[in-house]
Amino acid sequence: MRDRMTTRPLITGLMLAAIGGPALAAGPVLPGAPDPKPMLPAAAPTPHATAPDSAVRATLSNGLRVVIVQDRLAPVVTTEINYLAGSNDAPAGFPGTAHATEHMMFRGSDGLDKDQLSELGAKLGGEYNADTTETVTQYYYTAPADDLAVVLRIEALRMNRLSLKQADWDKERGAIEQEVSRDLSSPAYNYLSQLQATMFAGTPYEHDALGTRPSFDKTDAKLLRDFWSRWYAPNNAILVIAGDVDPDKALANVKAAFGDIPAKVLPVRKDFSLGAVKPQTLSLPTDYPIGLATLAYRMPGSKSPDFAAADILGDVLSSERGALYALVPSGEALAAQFLYRPKPDVGFGVALGAFPKGGDGEKLLGRIRGIIADIAHNGVPPELVEAARRRELAQLSNRNDSISGLAQSWSNALAFQGLSSPDAVAAAYKAVTVADVNRIAATVFDPAHVVTAMLTPQDSGKPIAGKGFGGAESFASAPDKPVPLPDWASTALATLHLPEPSPVPVVSILPNGLRLIVQQQHVTNTVSLYGRIRQVADMQEPKGQEGVSSLVERMFDYGSESKDRLAFQKALDDIAADEDAGSSFSLKVLSRQFDAGLALLADNELHPVFPADAFKVVQLQTAAGLAGLLGSPNYLFQRATTRAVVPAGDPALREATPQTVMALTEADAKAFYAAAYRPDLTTIVIVGDITPEHARSAIEQAFGGWKAVGPTPAIDMPAIPLNVASRSYVPDRSSLQSNIVLKEALGLKVTDPDHFTLSLGNEILGSGFSSRLYRDLRVKSGYVYSVSSSLGWSRTRSEYTVSYGADAQNIGKARDLVIHDLEAVQQQPVTDGELTRAKASLLRQLPMGRASFDAIAYEDLHLVDLGLPLDQPDVAARHYFNTTAAQVQAAFKAWLRPKDLVEVVQGPPTGG
């Protein structure tokens, strides 16, 4: 329930959002890249063979290219089918056709209608979604490895027998137009779309993949079917399978599912040429708490032979040892970075700096312009080129530490970059020279062809409180009915069973109280370390020193007592280690460099430096960031939500201000560090290619001398009374669509077994595409683009939240539907079908928590934070397996209070 943000993560997140360039999806987005040439049908299948990279490759007789990569990290598999078509292939006047087709792929096919597809997706329990870019549309599933054949059958039916009914499109159009409103509400999206139109004028890349409301109003099922018929073919697709599978059996499953689908003669894409970029200056108001000054340049695309050199140039410019980042410690920018975003045939790069609200953006822009000009004229530091190359290669080595990440890595290389494997990407990086990087810099950083932009914060008004809302309207929705699955699916998913118990980690407690958890894995030659010190700033910051925890966090950027900022970063670069220190700390490094990386992490974590000049810069930057943050719509929205749920005077309502930050001293910061950074509140999780014995020995050497100072602080928030209903509205001038949260405090603790029962019920109510909320608010009514409900826990508090985005005229209708669905769970037992589906989903989800190093570590750290045992997933599985519909109904009656939900709306001034 904490509502305060630190400026450091906030600024970084905004910068990435501003330039990231969204792919279009209903959920997670995969990065876009090149658009390979159309493929003609293959004459005959090629025998599969195991290459040095251990991937099994095959091309079916219909032209479908298949890559299977084994990874035994967890009993999980990810499939990604990449269709080599996107928004660039849309008919004139209909820029969102590829995006709309992607949505319709979830509306069912002959032999598997939309209800059956939703039922299957829920029972599989994994993650499934899609995204659309200019040249590639991806569909991906992550599911238990045993269900691979089911997932492949789903994709084959969608490839060959998509329904595409006009009635389904009429429903989906409302949802996709909500997505358009959501993205047009983002200053980052508006900047990106204008930048793209300027950079790539007169080419297919001039428009992004989103589409427009007018074009969707003109779109019908016939147009979508024509697009699908032209481009959705096995010989225009690449299927990547990664995970705990037997490659021969997996390939047999692929042939059984896809082998009979005929190839097609694909359309020929028209060539295009790029004219020179016309210089332009963009000025955009934003609801961000900071301003952004940017210079954008056209750069090589990811199919270009210069891609790797351009990427390394971007890395050099973003290096914390470089001149651009130096604007931050000098106090000239709140943050600074260079972001390179390649598309297939073209790309762009953006140099940007963040300045405080009311600050001098033009002055910062001038400094950035001078740095870029110096690089273009004098070249880049050779040592930074070598450091960037090492880091890129090390990151590629990490690809096996996530099953879905491994599938994505292969998809990027094959479908987006037109290469044979991630190893080919590595070879390209290895071949880059300093001369290559300097040549790219001298070519692209032409001041006559730069697009300048200034994103300036604006006020959006103060939040407005209202009275509690009344009862819901009456809805006569159709009763739930069982959804019969096809025989091939029902047979595969007929039996519920408990998943295999989670692997038991090696846990030890050092004499100083530090908890060490080691999960040895052999899937990659890397080691990842994740640490967390239990801190609650609202409980630990001395009165009048609000913001000291944020200030201390930023001081870790300045190295250690033995190595200043530049020397420390060079030491990390020398071993290609990714390190971050603070209350949450981490290290990713090659196995052979673990001890060296750990020594650097411990030096940074245990001996941070508080130089007077740096402290003053960080203090000013933190205060300046807060000055904009406190009036930003996102912050006001978050704070209004917290204020509505917790009582007056609660610690969660403490607030750092520019005044409290500027009153802090170095002594205050050092005192907070000494009191709050303690080994007896610290947990370290190590996952990867390392033995528990080696890990324990190394941790003892690096952290064993760390001693706690003073008594253990009380850091658990006090319990709070149950809230009552209220309504608040936060104006946001830059938004076209409203963001709505319904929330309430619950009375149970995370140790109460009913929390498992509520989680199972929430799976039915508001989790995923088959949930009641998704069905009623999106599929049936089209009131929202997305909706979800969730349960949140700490050691002393719990809460229930429903979140959705809607146009102003749909806010009340959506809210009433939420209350109707929540009360329905309380008034009558959920159906047997719903209960079985929810159990299947949650039981199959549990192995997903072991499918990446990050997931393994974060699960362990989360359990420690909650004071729960590490075998909690196995305990949860048994509860889910044995829970009855009557128990779900009773738990929702006991703990949920629909009439006490608070409502907070962030949206256009005319909304609410």
Automatic annotation (TrEMBL):
Keywords of this entry: Hydrolase, Metalloprotease, Protease, Signal
Keyword Oxidoreductase carried by entry: no
Keyword field contains Signal: yes
Residue stretches making up the Peptidase M16 C-terminal domain: 222-390, 664-842
Signal peptide range in chain numbering: 1-25
Record-annotated Peptidase M16 N-terminal domain positions: 65-212
Superkingdom assignment: Bacteria
A GO term, aspect molecular function: metal ion binding
Family: Belongs to the peptidase M16 family.
Protein name, as recorded: Insulinase family protein
Source organism (scientific name): Lichenicola cladoniae
